[in-house]
Amino acid sequence: MNKTVLFAALLAAFPARASLPAASQTAAGGELPHPIDSVVVTGARYSTDIRHLPMSVSTLGRERIERSHEQSLLPVLTEQIPGFFATSRGIMGYSVSTGAAGQMSLRGIGGAPQDGLPTTGLMVLIDGHPQYMGLMGHPIADAYQSMLTERVEVLRGPASVLYGSNAMGGVINIVTRKPKEDGVRTGLHAGYGSYNTLQTEATNQVKLKRFSSVVTASYNRTDGHRPRMGFEQYGGYAKAGYELSSAWSIEADVNLTHFNASNPGSISAPVIDNDSHITRGMTSAALRNEYDRTSGALSFFYNWGKHRIDDGYSPGQQPLDYRFHSRDDMLGLSWYQSARLFEGNRLTAGFDWFRFGGRAWNQPLDGSQRSMLADKTLHEVAAYVDFRQTIGRWLTLDAGVRIDHHSHVGTEWVPQAGISILPTDNAELKLSASKGFRYPTIREMYMFPPQNPDLKPERLWNYEIAWSQRLLDGRISYGINLFYIDGENLIMRVPVDGRPKNINTGRVENAGVEAQAAWRISPAWSLDANYSYLHMAYPVLASPEHKLYAGAAFAKGRWNVSTGVQYVEGLYTQVKINGSGTERQENFVLWNLRGSFRVCKAVELFVRGENLLAQRYEINAGYPMPKATVLGGIDLHF
Q1: What burial class does residue 509 get, using C-beta atoms within 10 Å of its C-beta: 0-12 exposed, 13-18 middle, 19+ buried?
Q2: Contact in structure between 257 and 277 (CB atoms under 8 Å)
Q3: Using an 8 Å Cβ cutoff, are 423 and 474 in contact?
């Protein structure tokens, strides 16, 4: 399809009051979508009015996260963010390796599993720092817990100018918690429910003038709804900050997650002793400045992981005589500075340096010499600049470019451009065109039989038009987006000379619509909904054609109740590979209900029910999801 013609057609289709996204995010449980003039950091690195960003950014606040009573962020994001979907296989836990869930996709980019491993293309950040496995290049879903999160910002569409490789489908930025008021506050959370599922969390927050800290720990476990599907997780997070002056501040944090997960295999191909023992850690430090005309930050981060996996064996076969081991890390240094050079202008320049890699090996159980699979370290260095100019009160122009160099693959240029138009104080029209890219991972180039060290980057272009508006003093808000994605050079496994090999041969051509709306009926009642339609010329695993959520919330006095129905249609659980095989799609409806009652200022009781219609469905092929589940518990605040 001719890209220029398509983009022109999109413009013509949306005259004076046309198109889309609500860069806003609806939220049941009493939250309204963000005000049109809300401030976000993900689309620009610095805090900025979302109206002047040409891209679509959805936000999810702490109140909504707490009222979900979920230990993982992914179920809440799947429910609340149009275009976003994360796979699941049970009541709790995603795991890694064969049979893993937690593959995340935005608009069909980033989520298709390959050999049981999530591919990349969707970047997860914690406070702007990339989070992915150094060897495999994919996010680790079980590391993204609600306990460390103040809010989540989801940029829907390529963000490669600011964040480089892996951000070609978008980014999920987890903004960590920080106390806002002086004092010491402690919270305890405990819940118990179906399949011997336990959730616990303890948090302490301190703010004393210029000093602030957050310390939180969690323990979660479940037996699972199938035999040999247990999951156990330990988590800890600590953050401290100090305001050096009115303009300068420093902060540092550390996050550690360990989980043990068992995989029983699919219904048709059960597996015995498929167990994973995973440890993931992250630490970072940042020096920030914020003046009237300029702001910026210099930050350091380090991620690491230790994986020990038993791939198991089929009934009737012999157990494996080895275990897979890996150690990976990622070290990064990031700097940016943004300045207002003259009226209406904002110029941002930045620099990133990453070092990532690790070792992987099979360790025989008899203590003999290990069999090395990989021992590799690569580097990436990049510089970028973004220029934004506001003309009058109603028009903002944006253009940015990144030059990114990979130590093995080479150099990539990444441009983007966009326009934001504000016809009224309560409405915005946005148009954008942006390039996204992804470098091949160490696994794709150097590990396992399909490896190919001559792989090139995957590339795509995203074209988008968006309209959003607030009515009745903000009590009603809505938004709608149209987008078209055209990508090439996708890495696929194809037969070459009778053997499988990773080759840059795949294509992606996705187009779709995203819509969302919210209505604050009264101080106690609110409604919200979001919908996304995705047309894929080339079907993608774990990406539904239709995803609809509609919810209602009631909050008054001591009561807070929310309920929602999610409808998913055309979710690909199997696709053809190189023209062979079969395609399989799932359709299902989920009804969830959450409620809480405040007994007194310090004590709150809660209950959460999921899939209350007891639907039979699968998200990962061969892994039936649990029917109705219930979890209840108590929150203490003092």
Answers
A1: middle
A2: no
A3: no
- The contacts of residue 317 (CB under 8 Å, 6+ apart) are none
Q: How far is it, in rounded angstroms, from Cα 33 to Cα 444?
A: 40
- Total Cβ atoms within 10 A of residue 214: 23
Tokens of 158: 């390529």
In which region does residue 301 sit, left (phi positive, over 0), alpha (psi from -120 to 50) or beta (all else)?
Answer: beta
Alpha-carbon torsion (405, 409, 410, 416), positive or negative:
negative
Please give the structure tokens belonging to residue 365: 């159980």
Neighbour tally for 173: CB within 10 Å:
24
Beta-strand (E) ranges in 194-293?
A: 197-208, 211-222, 231-243, 248-265, 270-290
Query: Splitting the chain (638 residues) into consecutive groups of 10 residues, what average pLDDT does each group show?
Result: 39 33 37 53 80 86 91 94 94 89 90 49 91 90 92 93 92 92 95 97 96 97 96 97 96 96 94 96 96 94 96 94 96 95 92 97 94 96 96 92 97 96 92 96 92 95 96 93 95 86 91 96 96 93 94 96 96 80 90 97 96 95 95 96
Give the amino acid at 56. S
Query: Contact 457/438 with Cβ under 8 angstroms?
Result: yes
Which of 174, 189, 186 is closest to 67 using CA atoms?
189
So what's the pLDDT on residue 393?
85
H-helix or E-strand containing 149?
strand 149-156
Using alpha carbons, list the distances in angstroms from residue 552 to 62, 68, 403, 528, 635.
Answer: 18, 13, 46, 6, 23
Give me 472's structure tokens.
């009745």
**Of the candidates 445, 436, 456, which has an alpha carbon nearest to the alpha carbon of residue 377?**
445
Would you mind telling me the total number of residues written for the chain in this entry? 638
Q: Rounded to whole angstroms, how far apart are CA atoms 324 and 303?
A: 20
| Amino acid letter, 177 | R
In the 3-class helix/strand/coil scheme, how is 587-618 assigned residue by residue?
EEEEEEEEEEEEEECCEEEEEEEECCCCCCCE
In the chain the first and final C-alpha atoms are separated, in Å, by 60
Rounded distance, CA 148 to CA 172, Å?
14
Rounded-to-integer distance, Cα 614 and Cα 506, Å: 38
> pTM for this structure?
0.91
Find tokens 């989070």 and name the residue.
Answer: 131
Stated as kind and residue range, the H or E segment containing 9 is: helix 3-13
Phi then psi for residue 470, to 5 deg, are: -120, 140
> Cα 247 from chain centroid?
31
Considering only CA atoms, which of 461, 445, 349, 450 is closest in space to residue 406?
445
DSSP per residue, 504-569: EEEEEEEEEEEEEEEEE-SSSEEEEEEEEEEEESS--TT--SEEEEEEEEEEETTEEEEEEEEEEE
Q: Which residue has the tokens 């976003």?
A: 84
d(CA 233, CA 218): 8
* Core vs surface per residue 79-109: b (16+ CB within 10 A) or e: bbbbbbbbbbbbbbbbbbbbbbbbbbbbbbb
| Tokens encoding 115 | 């050999």
Q: Do 241 and 249 meet the contact criterion of CB atoms below 8 Å apart? A: yes
Q: What letter represents residue 110's amino acid? A: G
Q: What are phi and psi of 13, to 5 degrees?
A: -75, -15
Distance of alpha carbon 143 from alpha carbon 233, whole angstroms? 10
